[in-house]
C-alpha cells in the first residue's frame, strides 16, 4: 500500500511538472502574439518580424536577388537574355537610301552580286548561285 502511495505521488509530481511547462509555453506564445499584433498595428508586416521571439537571435537575412545571366552570351551580371545587345531586332522597314544622284539617271546594278555600283555584264564575280 505504501508503494502505491509513492507511485501515485510520483505520477502527480510528473503531471504537475508537465502542467507547469505547458503554462510557461502558453505564456511565451501569448507574449509573441501580443508583439506581433502590436507590430501589425504599427504598420509593420508580421511576416517581416524575424526577431520577435528573442533579443539574442539575429534576424534572418533576406536572399539577394538572382544574378543577371545571358543565355546568348553565356555571361553573368552584364545583362539579361531579354536585354542582350546581340539580339537587337531589325527595323520593320529598310533604311533610307543614301544615294543623292539624279532621280532620272539609271544606277548600275548587278543581278549576280545584288549590289549597286556595276552592271551585271561587267561583274567579275566567278561564283554562280
TrEMBL record:
Keywords carried by this UniProt record: Coiled coil, Cytoplasm, Cytoskeleton, Microtubule
Recorded GO CC terms: microtubule
Organism whose genome encodes this protein: Pundamilia nyererei
Protein name: CAP-Gly domain-containing linker protein 1-like
High-level lineage: Eukaryota, Metazoa, Chordata, Craniata, Vertebrata
Cellular localization per UniProt: Cytoplasm, Cytoskeleton
InterPro entries: CLIP1_ZNF (IPR032108)
Protein's UniProt keywords contain Ribonucleoprotein: no
Record-annotated CLIP1 zinc knuckle domain positions: 67-84, 107-123
Region (Disordered): 39-64
Amino acid at each position: 500500500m505504501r508503494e502505491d502511495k509513492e507511485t501515485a505521488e510520483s505520477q502527480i509530481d510528473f503531471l504537475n511538472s508537465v502542467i507547469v511547462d505547458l503554462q510557461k509555453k502558453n505564456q511565451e506564445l501569448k507574449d509573441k502574439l501580443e508583439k506581433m499584433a502590436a507590430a501589425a498595428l504599427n504598420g509593420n508586416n508580421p511576416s517581416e518580424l524575424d526577431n520577435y521571439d528573442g533579443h539574442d537571435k539575429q534576424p534572418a537575412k533576406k536572399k539577394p536577388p538572382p544574378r543577371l545571366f545571358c543565355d546568348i552570351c553565356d555571361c553573368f551580371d552584364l545583362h539579361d537574355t531579354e536585354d542582350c545587345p546581340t539580339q537587337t531586332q531589325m527595323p520593320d522597314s529598310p533604311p533610307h537610301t543614301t544615294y543623292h544622284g539624279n532621280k532620272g539617271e539609271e544606277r548600275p546594278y548587278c543581278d549576280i552580286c545584288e549590289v549597286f555600283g556595276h552592271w551585271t555584264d561587267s561583274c567579275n564575280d566567278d561564283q554562280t548561285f
